[in-house]
Structures are given as C-alpha cells and as structure tokens.
Amino acid sequence: MAQGLSIPCAERGASYRVLNGGIGVMEVAVKPHDLLSWRALSGKGQLMIDIGAGYRPAPTPGTFSTHAGLVSVRIKVEGAASAATAVSCVAGSAKDAPNGVSAEVAADSQTFATSTGVGLNAQNRFKSGGTIVSRNLMFMSTSGMVSDRFLPPEWNAWATLEGRSYSGVLDGHSFDLVGGVDRLVSPDLLVGVLGGFGRTFVTDAGTPETVTSPMLGAYFGRNWNDALILDGFVAFAAPRYGISGATFSSRRLSGGMTLTGRVRHDTVTVEPFLFARAYHEWQPTYTTGLGAVVAANEAINVSASLGVRVSMTGTAEAPNRLVPYVSAAADMRRASSTLGGVDLVSAPRIGLGLRGDIAGGQMSLDFDFGKTRSDTYDRGMKFGYEMKF
Asked: What is the pTM for the complete model shown?
C-alpha cells in the first residue's frame, strides 16, 4: 500500500495496489445499487472509475451509484501513488440518490398514461374501439355529445386517470391524471393539446421516495378507412423529487406513437397493435439530507410493445352486450442513466377483461400483469367507465 493513502472503506473489502508505471488502483466490494462517494483529501490526482467497461473520469468530490449485478468497482488515482495524495471512500445505500430507479418508474408511468389516453381518445373519436393492454385506468370523453347525429363534434375533451402498483426491489404505487382538448381538422385527422399531473410513491430499501410531475404537450390522431389508426404525442414535464430529506427538480421530454389495426371475422374481432415510447430526463447535482453530494444524472428510456387483442363481439344481428377479450403483448424496454447504469426488460404482458355499453356509457373491467423493470413487477385491476356527456 502506498504511503499516505488511507482507505477508510477497508470494512467493505477495500484494497490498494500499484500498477506498472506507478498508477495506484483501489478496489472496493459493493452491493447492487450501492452509492459510493469518493473524496480526494490531498493531491491533484484524477479519480477514475472502472465499471467493467473501461475507466471514465469521476467528479472530485463525486458519487457513483452501482447498478444491479455489479460486485466491485476500481478507482485509479493517476500519478498519485505517493505520500502526497489520499483518497477516502464512503459507501451507503443508493436510496440517497435518484439512480434512475424511482425516476424511471415515475417517468414510465406518466409516459404510459399519456400514450394510453391519446390512443383511447383517437380510437373513440374514430369509432374503432380500444386495444390498450391496460393497467388501472378510467377514461372519460365528451365525444358522446353529438351536435349532428351522423358526425362527431368538431371539438372534444377527454381525461384519463390511471393507477399502478409495484412489487420487487421497489414497492409502491403511482397515479397519473392526463387530459386533452382536440379538434377534427378533417374527418380522419385530429390535433390537440394535453396536460397532466402524476404522483409516484415508492419505497427503496426501506426509504420512501416521492415524485410529482406536472406536464404539458400536444398530440394527433390519424385514421385510415376505419381499419388503421396512428396516434402520437410529445410532452414536457418538470418532475420534483423528495428523497432522503432532499428535494430537487428536473426536466423531462417524452413522446410516443401507437399504430392500431382492426380486423373482424364472424363473431371475433382481432386488433394487432404496436406502441413505441421514449423519454429523456436531466437531473441536477444535489445534496442529500445526510450531506452526500450526488452528481448530475441523465436518464434515457426507450420502450416498445407488440401484441394483439382478441374480442368475442358476437354477430351484427346479436351483438354481445358485454364483450370479453384476452390480450397478449411483448414488452421491450431499455433504460439507462448516468448513476444507475443500464436496465433491460423483455417480458410478456397478459390481460383479460370485459367491455360493453351500460347505462348510456361504456364499462370496462380489466386485469393485467407484467414487468416495469428487470427487478420490479407491476400488476393492475381496472374498472373503467367512459362517460357520454
């Protein structure tokens, strides 16, 4: 061990060795999602972090949050293997930092709710029915207010309220309210503006975390011969976090597109669908309630779902009052962040339920199960009623 180099993290398996050329390397055993804070006590050597993909600079002082599956990190003190430089390490739980987990859950929830609302509105406006593999959701629209009995109204307003629950590494729930106002610029094209508000409550390693996300955006819908619908949106959100006694705000840009088909054969309706959604969030440097400085974080998430829904609609002469359906989708997602690393998800999502016209509106009862992260499951039960007013 180089003279003058102190390693207070020895209880975590820290060790130090000198490589050829006089470069010092410190190795520390870590647990998945640990938060490591590195501080140079003296000297000017640059700290470098090796996470298995080559060295990269680390801020001084700075933090590094490990990701699932990582069991050790290395700190290279370039030109500093001498008595003039010392490095200290403080290891703690990543619950003190937004390592992309709570942020990812909140962003995914709001992005999905927005995509769902925009898609249901387009399908409702163009009278093709819904194909969403839903979670907990309530959808309301004014499209039932028909000023001309043969044409939909030129203007329309809608709102969705979605709830989700989580279990696994993260436990908790989220609620998202999204609404919009749109105008038919032609019989097969609508454009509109939307707004939303989301609240996420999760517990990570026993520590509660909250995220509040106001949002504004725009959307569109396009119909082709009542057999194919394309809809999409772009939105900006300003999430505010509460983690370990600290509060801070970030910026998020999100967007999504959905392509939905519809084929009816005898008493069965088949609706294939493809979703694509993404968001990009920028989080600032902040200080936790324990005094740890958490470096700025950048998170990017890209997801897609490919699936089909099959409904037993009955015949034109004897349609089913309550339409049962089953749905299956393949969810694929890649989430990456500066602090949290990369998380890949490839999992099925299964849904089943009933929909039908009751008391002047449309009722739906849905159940579904899937994964929102590689280490977190989500499940939902939905009772929805589309109000005609």
From this structure: 0.68
Higher pLDDT, 152 or 282: 282
CATH homologous superfamily of 101-386: Autotransporter beta-domain (2.40.128.130)
Read off the tokens for 243. 């983690």
| Residue-range domain boundaries for the chain | 8-96, 101-386
Cα distances (Å, whole numbers) of residue 139 to 107, 142, 188:
20, 11, 22
Tens-digit pLDDT profile for residues 200-238: 998 876 678 899 999 999 999 999 987 899 999 999 999
> Is 287 in contact with 293 (CB distance < 8 Å)?
yes
The Cα–Cα gap between 123 and 355 comes to 15
| Rounded CA separation 360/284 (Å) | 49
Q: What is the pLDDT of residues 286-315, one digit of tens each?
A: 776 655 567 778 889 999 999 998 888 755
CB 179 within 8 A of CB 157: yes
Residue-level pLDDT at 149: 44
Task: Give the pair of three-digit tokens for residue 181.
Answer: 């106002």
Q: Is the previous residue joined to 348 through a cis bond, with omega within 30 degrees of 0?
A: no
3-class DSSP state for residue 285?
coil
- The amino acid present at 122, given as its one-letter code, is A
CATH class of residue range 8-96: mainly beta
